[in-house]
Structure formats: structure tokens, C-alpha cells
Amino acid sequence: MLKEYNPYLEYKDGELHLEGVSLKNLAKEYGTPLYVYSASYIRDRVRAYRRAFPEALICYAVKANFNPSIITLAKEEGAGADVVSGGELYLALKAGVDPSKIVYAGVGKTVQEIEFAVKQDILMFNVESSMELDVLNDVGQSLGKKVRIAIRVNPDVDPKTHPYISTGMKKSKFGIDIKQAKKEYEYARKLKNLEIVGIHCHIGSQILDVSPYIEAVEKVVELYWDLSKSGFDIKYLDLGGGLGIKYQPDQANPEPEDLAHAIMPSLKDVKAQIILEPGRSIVGNGGILITQVQFLKDKGHKHFVIVDAGMNDLIRPAIYSAYHHIVPVVERNSKYIKTDVVGPICETGDFLALDREIPYVERGDYLAVLSAGAYGFAMSSQYNARPRACEVLVEKGSVKVIRKRETYEDIIYSY
To answer: What is the DSSP track for 285-321?
Structure first.
């Protein structure tokens, strides 16, 4: 079952290993909470996208995991970067990503961020509003540059995912209604410091059924042909990311090939280059959060396993009621117990699992929280003045610390 999550994850003599490295030994050496990532898995996922879409530009969505070493892995396999902030752009550049392979989205870009990106000569901005067109044009004029843009269109497609990560419907803050898009393109064409090069669309995240992509792509292609007939030279169709991963044991794990089979028939006559922005499906099941049991607590009607990783380390369960599969690092007990796995944070919503059946554990045991490579450390915080976790990268038996554990001094120096 574990190999359905990650082929490099397995028990050896009852002890969990990732790429041949003992997770128990890593926890003892580097402490917990501890994020551990599989480099081979991440490389494999980028390669899978490039095989499924050989002519496309794959731009890794940095927001999923912004560790520079992770970005570098994707870059080494030929990926560019999808960024949504000046910080993510800075990290992508530090990781060696070619600016000509960077696209910049996000609803709230500041003038300083825009100036930084224009000076780096990135591939294009994915524009989220009419007012943003004016700001981009003004920045381009002040810098004496033409700013390449695509407009993010909102196709009003239900991606069948959690409402907080559904971004392509009318009520979403993202994008411009596709029915109004041509009007915005006509307006952009009048702005002298903008160069219109693409169309952008992103319907959501953690999408397990590829059928919503078909509807979205069909609408985007219809706009593409309409704009082409009106004299627009659309060089790129950026179709976003959002392909989901296996979190629960009974969930599917959709492949890039499945997405290609679904959408490529609609794109067969399109001359523009396709851009894809995968994030979670690149790194999600490449990462594991190791945590140590601190206490067991039985209140009669309720049992608790209290661990040292909390919502400050992995907030997805708290804000999305997200499921993360949890397994023991060392198999030593066939007895199961129904329990809440909770963290040390002073919030009732601080949990990793509720009413979950897991093998019985004792104080000091280690647990592995799976599917933690995306939106894990990236969304972590110092809440309750807790230092953020250490991050380790393993590859074919080797181990590399890619972010040291924070100290109390690091928290002080943040102020």
C-alpha cells in the first residue's frame, strides 16, 4: 500500500525507509518534527509530465514547496517556475531557473514585485484584473520595457475539490470572467507598454477527476480562436496546474498521462505552446513529516495521541479538514486504537487526524505523516513561538539537510 503513495517508501525489517534511508535514524539524528523528501520521486514526477506533454513548458508551482533545493530538482529535470510573489521569484532565480521559463500569477502583485520581475525579463505575467493591466503598463513605461502578459480567464468550471482551493468559478477572487475576456484583451492591446502573448487558466487544486479540465480547455481554446481571428498573436496557452494526489488509501493517483489523454484532443490544432503549472502532483507524495509521540491521554469517551508536530508544522488538517495517512515508523504492534492525533499548539483545531484507527503507540514512538511534501513546510509558521522544522532530502541512500531547524534565537532575530 505504501508504494501506491511513493515507490521509494517501504518497510525493511519492520522499519520505514525512504530511498533506502531509515526514517527512524533520521529522526534520531535531526530531531522531530522533521520533513523528509525523496529526490528521486520528485525527479520522476517532472519526467512524467515531460513525457506526457513533450512540447509543453512545465513550470513547477513554487508555492507548493519553496525550498530552493526542491526548486533546483525540478529545474534540473527541465522545469521552469510558476511564482505568485516576489519572494518566490527570488527563490526561483536563486535556484537557477531561467527567467524565460518563469510565469508570474497572483491577484495582489505590488509595484515593487512587478518591477523586480520586469527587470528579470520573465516569460510573462498572468494578469488577474483590468486594473493590473494599467499598473503593468505604467511600470513598463517607467522602465522603458514592454511587459509580456497573458490574461487569467475564469471559465466558471466546477473542479470538484475543496471550495477553498477551487479557483475557476465565478465567485472566486481569481481571474477575469471568460465572457469579458475579449474586452480586456482589446483594452490591453491599446496599452503601448504591454505585449499580449498568452491566455492563462487555473481552475483549482487537488483535482482527482480530469473531466473538469476538458470543459475548461474547450472554453480556453474557443477564446484562443476568437482572439486569433481578431489579430492577436497568442503564443502560449497556460492551462495551470491542480492535478491531485493520493492522500487517502482508497483514492486514485491521477497521472500526467491521464491529463494529456483528456485535453490533448481539444488542443490538436492549437499553434500556441502549452504551459502547465504542476505543484502538488510533483512534490506532494515526495514528502513525509516525522513526528514523535509525547503523551497518551485517555478521557474515557475519547483517546488522544499527543505528538510534537502541530498545526504550525502542517496546517492542512486544521484549515481544510484534510486527510493525511499516518503510519508507524517502526512496526511493532498489530493492535489498533481509535484516537485523535493532536499537536502541542494551544488550539482545539490543532490536530493531524481525528477518530483515526492507527497501530497502538507508546511514548517516544515515531509516526510518519504521508503526503506532506506540498503545502506542508510552505504553510508552516512560528505560532506559539515554535521554531520551524528541519528539512532533509534523501536520494538513493544519501542524506542532505536542505533547511536547518530553527532555534529560539532565529525567532528573536525575525523581529
So the answer is: GGEEEEEEEEEEEE-SS-EEEEES--TTT--HHHHH-
How far is the C-alpha of 274 from the C-alpha of 236, rounded, in Å?
A: 6
Q: Tell me whether residue 87 is in a domain.
A: no
From the candidates 59, 201, 346, 390, give the one annotated as an active-site residue. Answer: 346
pLDDT over threshold 90, residue 173: no
Whether the per-residue pLDDT at 152 is higher than 90: the answer is: yes
Cα separation, 401 vs 288, in Å, equals 14
Q: What is the pLDDT of residues 329-338, one digit of tens each?
A: 999 878 999 9
Whether 279 contacts 241, CB under 8 Å: yes
This model's pTM is above 0.90: yes
What the block records as the C-alpha cell of 145 is: 520595457
* Domain-located, residue 377: yes
346 catalytic? Reply is yes
**Overall number of domains in the chain:** 2
Please tell me the distance from the alpha carbon of residue 1 to that of residue 282, in angstroms, as a whole number: 20
Element (H, E) at 197: strand 194-200
What pLDDT score does 1 carry? Answer: 85
